[in-house]
Amino acid sequence: MASTLEALNISKSYREPLFKNLTLKVPERGLIFIKGPNGSGKSTLLRVLALMEPPDEGEIVLMGEKVGDVTVKDYHKYASYISYSFQEPLLLPTSVEENLRLPTKVSEQKLSELIDRLNLKQLFGKKASKLSGGEKKRVDIARAIIRETPLLFLDEPLSFLDPSYVELVIELIVEESSRRSVLVTATEAIPELEGNASQIVDMVEARRSAKG
Ligand SMILES: Nc1ncnc2c1ncn2[C@@H]1O[C@H](COP(=O)(O)OP(=O)(O)O)[C@@H](O)[C@H]1O
Ligand SMILES: [Mg+2]
C-alpha cells in the first residue's frame, strides 16, 4: 500500500473557513508536518484526518478504505490503526505506570526504550494528575508512541517541554517516521521536521485559499 491515509479535497469551516480543497497523501513511512499559529486550524485538521470529526466536504480514505458515516464498530477498527496524542495531555487519573500499561497494541520493547529515553521511571508511582505540564506531555507522547499502529498523530508534541526534551522528541518523531506514518503539528517552523517531511501543510496558506 502506497499510503495509509488519503484526504481528498477536504474542507472545514467553523465560524470561519479553516481549509478548503486540501489534499494529502500520507505515505506508509513518512512525516506530514502541519504548521500554523494558534487558532489556525491545526488541531481541527488533525481530528478530521483521524476521523474524530467529519470534514464539511471531501473524502478520507484510511488503509485503502473509503470512510463513510462512522459507526461505533468502525471506531474500534480505526483505534487499531491510529495512535493519537492530544495537544492537552489526556491522562487517566491513575498512576503514570497504569497510564502506560493500559493501551492496546503496546510494544514492550518500545515501552522500556521510551521509559529510558524520556526519563519516565521516576514518575511511575506518581498520579498523573500530580504531574507538571511537561511531565504530563512526556507521558502522553510515550503512551502514543508505544502503540504499534500504522499511523501516529501528535498534536503539538513540542509544547510544554523543556528544550532538552524538545530535541529528544524531534529525534523520536524522525525515527518513528522511518517506520510508519506520522502526522505532527507545531506553531512554528521546525527545520529538523520540515527537512524530513514528505509534505508540509501551512495552515495560513490553507486558510488563505479557503477564503478564496
Ligand atoms: N468544535 C468547535 N466548535 C467551534 N469552533 C471550533 C471548534 N473547534 C475549533 N474551533 C475553532 O476553529 C479555529 C481553529 O481551532 P484549532 O483547530 O484548535 O486551531 P489550532 O490547533 O491551530 O490552534 C479556532 O477559531 C477555534 O475556535
Ligand atoms: Mg491546536
| Main beta sheet | 5 strands, parallel
From the alpha carbons, calculate the radius of gyration and give it in angstroms: 17 Å
Task: Provide the residue-averaged pLDDT.
Answer: 95
Q: How many structural domains?
A: 1
DSSP strand content: 25-35%
In sequence order, what are the helices and strands, one letter per element? EEEHEEHEHHHEHEHEH
CA distance, first residue to last residue:
34 Å
Name the hetero compounds present: adenosine-5'-diphosphate, magnesium ion
CATH topology: Rossmann fold
Low-confidence stretches: none
* Structural classification: alpha/beta
Helicity range:
25-40%
Notes on the structure:
It is built from eight helices and nine strands. The chain has 212 residues and is an alpha/beta fold. The protein has one domain (3-211): Rossmann fold, CATH 3.40.50.300. α6 (163-177) links the parallel β7 and β8. The N and C termini lie far apart (34 Å). The mean pLDDT is 95. Adenosine-5'-diphosphate binds at residues 14, 18, 36, 38-44.
Keywords:
Rossmann fold; binds magnesium ion; 212 residues; five-stranded parallel sheet; 25% strand; four-stranded antiparallel sheet; 35% helix; globular; alpha/beta; binds adenosine-5'-diphosphate
